[in-house]
Amino acid sequence: MHVVNPDSLIHYPPQHHVHGLITSRLGLNLQLEGRHFRHTGALVLRCVANILPHAALDTEIDLESVVQRWQPLMENREALFL
User: Fold this and answer.
1) In sequence order, what DSSP letters do the residues of 46-61 get, joined into one string?
2) Residue 62 covered by a domain
3) Total structural domains in the chain?
4) Which of 15, 34, 46, 60 would staple 23 via disulfide (CB 3.0–4.6 Å)?
5) Does the pTM of the predicted model rise above 0.70?
């Protein structure tokens, strides 16, 4: 697993809700390159979050998302010249 450079993270202010719930968001600013994609053309993003409902309880949530790559660059160039 590759951990992103902290400089690539976008920190958003927490959102406080009526009954004490606090929503936190974190963005990712990353220039994608061919090396980021698997041989199938898929990009896998993993987000791991720790949820602390109580100080003594630490629950880790691990979400993985697969994003399909757009058409290869060469196919896009050919489409532009048609």
Assistant:
1) EEEEEE-SSTT--EEE
2) yes
3) 1
4) 15
5) no
